[in-house]
Amino acid sequence: MKFYRNLTDGKKSALIGGILILVFGIAFSIYRQSRLEKLNSDFILTEGTITEIRLNVSKGRTQTEDIFLFEFKHNGKNIIKSRTAYKPELLKVGQKFKVKVHPKDSDLLEIDLNGI
Question: Where does the chain cross the membrane (predicted)?
Fold first, then answer.
């Protein structure tokens, strides 16, 4: 604790902030890994279709991003989701692709835009 007592207030704040960021990063990583393991242990493959491409959609107050909306069937229902389009010029409305989805959770999914 002698090390901590010798730090200035600014350095103490930076140290505590760094530790908090590290803890939250580790927690997020563990959460993401557990979701991936859950999806990989039990999934169904279905077909998704791009229904709309939106360019420069507002993200927060100052940023914009390109997104695409897609639709797929899950337990007999049509589900509509959106994802960020990193290369929107490569996407087309009506394009088909594979969707790997958990049978009990339509929010737990992975898409493969390389087609079917």
Answer: 12-31
